[in-house]
Structures are given as C-alpha cells and as structure tokens.
Amino acid sequence: MLGVDTDVFIDGRRLGKAGSAAEAASMLGSLAGREHEVVSGLCLRGDGWEELHRVVTLVEFRPLSAADVDRYVAAREWEGRAGAYAVQGRGATLVARIDGDYLNVVGLPAALLVRLLADRIGSR
Predict the structure, then answer these.
(1) Phi/psi at 60 (nearest 5 deg)?
(2) Going by fewer Cβ within 10 Å, which terminus of the chain is more open, N or C?
(3) Sheet containing 2-10, strands listed edge to edge, beginning at the edge strand earlier in sequence
(4) Which residues are catalytic?
C-alpha cells in the first residue's frame, strides 16, 4: 500500500489547498519571486513492514505581476493544489528554478519510491 501527501511551505508557514480564487491569488503572491519548499510524506507498507519518508524539493518562483497571477487564477488550475499551483501544467510558467525531485513537486516523490521498491525487491 502506498500513501503520499504533499504540502507547500514558505517562511515556516504551510500553504494548503486554496479554498477560493482570492486565496489562490494571495498564495501565489506570497510565492512570487521567492523560494519555497515542497514537502511530501510517503508511506509504503507491506505485510510486516512499513517505510515512512519525507522528501523536500526547493522551488523558486520568478517575479510575478498582478496580471500573471490573475491569468493563472482565471485558468483554475490552482483548484485542489497545495500552494495553489500545478507545476506539470501552466504552473510551469511560474517557476524559475527547481532544486530536487521534479516529480515530488508534481505530487509523487518518484525517485524515492523507485529506490524503496528496488530495495524491497532486491532484499527478497
């Protein structure tokens, strides 16, 4: 069994999923031109074993104008997304740099998952 949840943190503050367009715009404004952390918790369980891990990827947004934020919010891609953006879609245009696992920012720390599965298969 696999469980993963991803959150965005800036200045020690957790940005969950925006509940409205106004909240999404506020979140994006706080991320504009700054670096933040995308943190995923991963739990992998099997019969008689469990692996719990945390993966952190640093993401830096480019400076955003009010028009940039308004266009992104209007596209509604922010809905249901931690930090109010989806890097695998239009949100890629907001990003200046990613340091770490890109797929962690998408929502699944794939490099970690592949390593854990390979370790499990190799230990049989």
Answers:
(1) -115, 125
(2) C
(3) 13-15, 2-10, 35-46, 49-61, 95-99
(4) 5
pLDDT, tens digit, for every residue of 83-121? 999 999 999 999 999 999 999 999 999 999 999 999 988
Rounded CA separation 81/76 (Å): 10
Q: Go through the chain and tell me how many residues it has.
A: 124
The pLDDT value recorded for residue 124 is 63
Q: Give the pLDDT confidence of 70-93 residue by residue, as tens digits.
A: 999 999 999 999 999 999 999 999
Domains present along the chain, CATH in parentheses: 2-122 (3.90.950.10)
Q: Which amino acid is at 115?
A: R
Per DSSP, helices labelled H in 1-124 are 21-31, 66-74, 102-106, 110-122
Spatial neighbors of 123 by CB under 8 A, at least 6 apart, are: none
Q: What are phi and psi of 33, to 5 degrees?
A: 70, 15
